[in-house]
Amino acid sequence: MDSKTFINYFERCKEAEVVTHILHLRTKSYARHMALGEFYETLNGLADQLAEAYLTKGGSELNISQLCFTIPTDEKLFIEQFLEETRILTIREIEVDIQDILSGITELCKKTLYLFTLS
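The structure corresponding to this sequence follows.
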């Protein structure tokens, strides 16, 4: 995976983590509160694993720009869009360990979307 693609996706992971944390605090649904809490906590660890795997493969330094984003009003749509961005990366030719982490992120998104249906 080229450096620019990786850094853009890593920034998106950190954005998703912060946004879902805020959505977790803002929702009035207990089920969504719990699902979003698990999402941002788990995504933090997966993003860390992703960065470490990238760096150990000789990836360039993670020069992260300032993150700027708005908080969406539709939690489900936000997770669906993040899932689609992750799926696009998983169809590329990339190292197995990075592919495994992306698969973990994909499963986390799917699980969260399923938990949303229970609310």
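The chain has one domain: 3-117.
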